[in-house]
Amino acid sequence: MKIVLLGPPGAGKGTQAAKLTELLQVPALSTGDMLRAAVREGTALGKEAKGYMDSGALVPDALILQIVKEFLQTPACANGCILDGMPRNLKQAEALDELGVDIDLALSLEISDDEIVRRMGDRRVCPKCGTVFSVTANPPQKDNVCDKCGDALIIREDDKAETVLNRLKVYHAETEPIIGFYRAKGKLKTVDATQTIEDVNKALAGAVGL
Ligand code: AMP
Question: Which of 30, 58, 70 should be mutated for ligand 1, with most atoms under 8 A from CB?
């Protein structure tokens, strides 16, 4: 089963993708995580992507499509996959079709802008392993320390208030139209993303038929 997770930044796509990979036993690709790793490692991709990411803009489609093509060709994707953060505009959604990637289900996490702004203020990430925490909804065991690798948690550069507003603007202008794209294909299911992490996960499990 090939699934795309839709929703604004901070809706919980990364958290839910991690849970769905366990439930469905298929790999997930987070284009955002891949890009952040490339920035950390200082690769050519990272150098090209950084400026766009820091301002909350989208990285050029050609770079994203290259990442996704490579991922989809890996043997791990034979039984399906979850795409988190891709497609991010109609061009990318159409490009998946053109590549013959038949998306079975688009799961849209629904949440208001006000709630996103509140959540982003609570979000902390581990700079080393990328694990995401929320000081309210999903706090680390020890204040400000990653449960997995013990590094001090940080606020992501693009989670700072002014960048979040830009990311929301980009989401509404460029990403939201994808909801209609998958609805028209009869592949859209929506989930209330304001629920607890566990309840959102139950709703998504139901949506994928588990
Ligand atoms: P995310 O972690 O999904 O919120 O992504 C963080 C940033 O990475 C975004 O604000 C974009 O700059 C970039 N990015 C991630 N996925 C994509 C994509 N599919 N297309 C273009 N830019 C992306």
Answer: 58
